[in-house]
Amino acid sequence: MTKEETLAKIDGQVKNNPCVIYMKGTPTMPQCGYSSRASQAMIDTGEKFAFVNVLADPDIFQYLPFYQDWPTFPQIYIDGELAGGCDITLELAASGELLRMMKAANEKHAASSAAE
Amino acid sequence: MSLEQAITQLLTTELSPDFIEVDNESHLHSSGKGGNSHFKVTVVSDAFEGMGLVARHRKVQQVVAPVTGGVVHALGIHTYTPDEWQDRGYEIPESPTCAGSKHG
Fold first, then answer.
1. What is the DSSP letter of B48?
2. Mutate to test the interface with A, among B29, B84, B98 (most CBs of A within 10 A)
3. Spatial CA neighbour of A71 closest among B29, B62, B94
4. ipTM surpasses cut 0.90
């Protein structure tokens, strides 16, 4: 895929999933400590979230850093916005803000799906 | 000049920090001792006042990019205002190891 096609694909994933993490590996088999800790923080909220394994998609691995001008993995998107990488996600989790943000995003998405 | 010193110098010039610590944590990872793969930056500065976390991290990433680009695999970033730094008891967060719990 070209860069433009890949960025459009990422944009679709971010817009269609209220909570999504781009990570190395999967939440059950993370391949990097930073991805492991960030996905574990999301699991700990008890809220639903999607994940994309960047190691399984070379195009996304290459072009994701350009999507929101964020150079590293993991990247966590909540309600269509970049929430942060590993460090920010852990800080948000520690303050309880991660749960609040994920819950709000999931409820908003459920409400708009029900209205359709 | 080591990469830690170069990172420290750039951030000091740009952010006039109250506190800054740059740790080379490459020895915790497969790159081995002496590598320049993993760094952790802790910066306390008034410049972060009123900025969200994403904006703060972008700022740090942009400032250090000239020396870390293409070299550094992982850059942990912890940013605080002087008040936030006091609230957390002046404690630097711990970094994860590369393969998480698998490598202990």
1. G
2. B98
3. B62
4. no
